[in-house]
Amino acid sequence: MSNKLITKIIAGKYKGKSVELPALETTRSSKAILKESFFNVLQYDVIDTIFIEAFGGSGSIGLEALSRGAKHSYFCEIDKKSYKILERNCKTIDADNSTPILGDTFEVLPRLVNNSFKNDAIIVYIDPPFDFRDGMENIYQKSYEMVESFTNENIFLITFEHKAELVLPDILGSFRKYKTKKFGNSSLSYFERFESEE
What we know:
Layout: E1 5-8, E2 18-21, H1 32-42, E3 50-53, H2 60-67, E4 72-77, H3 80-94, E5 98-102, H4 105-115, E6 122-126, H5 139-148, E7 155-163, E8 171-172, E9 175-183, E10 186-193
Parallel strand pairs: 3-4, 3-6, 4-5, 6-7
Antiparallel strand pairs: 1-2, 7-10, 8-9, 9-10
């Protein structure tokens, strides 16, 4: 009997396909209810977008986005064991339209976002790791600064998955928080691009 942890694609063209999860001590999988709510908010807005999962883990959010019509998904993951699983999942679900990147999200993502996708709508999903790795105390602050460094005007949505007790800033660079939804110990906070009145 396999002791592999798995989740499944909820809807779309790859519905029911299995996504292997890294070991629990390495990463947390986004809960199905939270994932479903996120895509209920997005609905058709995900179609033909570039979807970027900042802390890739298993890739379950970005692969779900592909299943629901995203044009291409990119994933950043620094942990080598998690990355191997992420790579396998991308190959299994949609090798042509998924790009896993091994590296530090805080270095890779601003470069990727600011230098590419000049003609594509972009969604960024940020689920910073917490509670299981030492040295992560300032992970949210670094994530805020990363968002503030985004200059690509095609990013129309940034969503943070975060600890429910954490209240995220109302403004991050060119993005304004417009909704937070709580799911037990986790929340999703949604940011949209806005034009500064300066």
